[in-house]
Amino acid sequence: MSHPPPFGQMAEFAEADALTEAVRAARAAGWRHLEAYSPYPIPEAAEALGVSAAPVGYIALAAGAFGAALAAGTAWYISVHLYPVNVGGRPLNAWPTFMPTTYLVAILWACAAALIGMLALNGLPRLSHPAFFARGFHRASADRFFLLLSSDDPLYEPEGTAQFLRGLSPLRVSEVRSA
Question: For the chain, which terminal residue's Cβ has fewer other Cβ atoms within 10 angstroms, N or C?
């Protein structure tokens, strides 16, 4: 029975600063396909990885504006053209009556777009990833920090990558196999 191909090499660290320094060292060495895992956000590591802020806010704003325009336009069209009912002498296109539904629809669209945009930008849902099966990786949500150097990177060479990671003084270096 043949082994699955390697997905990469993973180093485990005890502290966030060690992970951040490892990411910086890997970037300085020319690595481009790497991932960091930690139990909480580390802005310095994200900056070293080159991760930029996701445009979820802009997605929500655009969807909210579209939803508001759609709701206001629909309410106006229905009130003025489809069912023009004069209630209490008010004009048919009295915009203050449209505002509660316009506001609520805008919030609904913005929230839905923010959720869908966040999931899409993060590549979720991803129920299985080879890193999940790495030795000790279950502690990534508790108290450990991990750096994964992917086999997709042109610099990847199994022994050389493991030696590079050992030079960063991790607690452990392990090979991650593809599922």
Answer: N
